[in-house]
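Please predict the structure of the following assembly.
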Amino acid sequence: MALLQRRHVLPGFGPALGVTLMYLGLIVLIPLSAAFIKTFTLTWDAFWLTVTNPRVIASFKLSFGVSLLAAAINAVFGLLVAWVLVRYELPGKRVIDALVDLPFALPTAVAGIALTAVYSTKGVLGAPLAELGIKVAFTPLGVLMALIFIGLPFVVRTVQPVLEDMDRGYEEAAHSLGATPLQTFTRVIFPTVMPALITGFTLAFARALGEYGSVVFIAGNMPMVSEIVPLIIITKLEQFDYAGATAVAVVMLVFSFILLLLINFLQWWVRKRRAEEKA
Amino acid sequence: MHTSAVITTPVPITATRAKRSPVAWVPILLTGLALAYLALVLFLPMAVVFVEGLRKGLDFYLNALAEPDALAAMKLTLLAAAIAVPLNLVFGVCAAWAIAKFDFRGKALLITLIDLPFSVSPVISGLIYVLIFGKQGWFGEWLFDHDLKVIFAVPGIVLATIFVTFPFVARELIPLMQAQGRDEEEAAALLGASGWQTFWRVTLPSVKWGLLYGVILTNARAMGEFGAVSVVSGHIRGETNTLPLHIEILYNEYNFTASYACATVLVFLALLTLVAKVIVEARQHRAMNLAVAEAREVQGSKA
């Protein structure tokens, strides 16, 4: 009892924590648990049949495959953008730096119709690509472009602070010891930014997996070809198949929770590495 | 630091330059590549929204925005944000106060749980409220009997908006208030300040910029949310359409120019959000530098 009643110098702990837990419970935890409780109304066989339906499996393959690819492309170019923003002087750098956050701030539906306009066969980039025989809008390639758009800031914003902290002395040392720029990059720079890069990659991947608004306009939503998992959930809801929609949603939620734990671990790792670098 | 200085000094400057010149094109190439990527991925789509929105001239553009359904959508968007933002603000401040100023068991778990809505697909964020308040949901029958509507009505839209913007204020405030420490508040409390006085006069002034940014982010996301709101809205024109849903309907009706015209409003909102971010970050930075300088002065005068 004495431990529980330990007195704090500052007031307000009880009410603050009380409001926090109540609001968290009412808005987030109870509603989320509804999804899990709903799936228990399904028998295991019915659940399994729903989530292994070929159309559902195809959507999982598409969502995972394209999200991974988009995150990988953003890992490469996000590192490049972060490097340029940290290391080089260029006119308008502050504006460019601020605009990197555009995908965070821009509503997803707007991003969706904007990308469709760019990549449709009449679009600025879509038309010349179509002449080369590459169709982007209304194909999985369109899904990829949307997921690249929304994932970019995650990689840039996790890598940027690590690059800013980096001691340039090591690079200069590597250089004067005769390392080529490529060697300096692979042996000195890359190992330092690697934890942050993996974190940014995972964040971009997790975001891409659940993304809906920016994808539905450009995807064409053809079953078995360009239909993402969130759209499967919407389609089932529109057919009033609540149990089916929830079954697919629960599979997604489990993946999201695993990714959330992984991201928490990665962020802890990055913080530890940065603290060690500074020490 | 010392080792690198020792190693670099014997190399004559001219030699270093000569050695570096073959790679002088690297920064130019990398900068060009990065800018090309940003232009292609970010800037071009944003510019296209304006081009498409103004395709049929300024009159058409203004009419698309002033049309009754568009105005109703804007009103509902503002209403949803006006409810979601203050609620999440109060929650964020409470959560940050409890987490940053006190020690308790399960704190790491609590922070993870607050982050949950970020990792849930927007579509699922809408679905969970359908499962509770929808016709086949937990309270479906009771609501129907009492002639109340949550799903396919305004309350559902507000709830979904609250869910997707839940973590923003807390996420901005927690690290700031943790970095701020507890010494100043504890000093205020020991000098006889009440809890509210301590919060308003000591805590709030040093985190106000972060708090403001959290509110701006919450607002931007609340006004722009699409997936979650789409599930609970029912898309009733003039009644349960938010601005992003109105854009979708116009688009699906092949009324492209009007759709892009309405989208420009949300692009402006996004750009304003980014401007606010730059300003707030600069202020926060200055406030922190000032605090550090003051702390040094105090230490200096003690010595």
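Chain A touches chain B through 95 residues (CB under 8 Å). Residues 1-5 of chain A have pLDDT under 50 and may be disordered.
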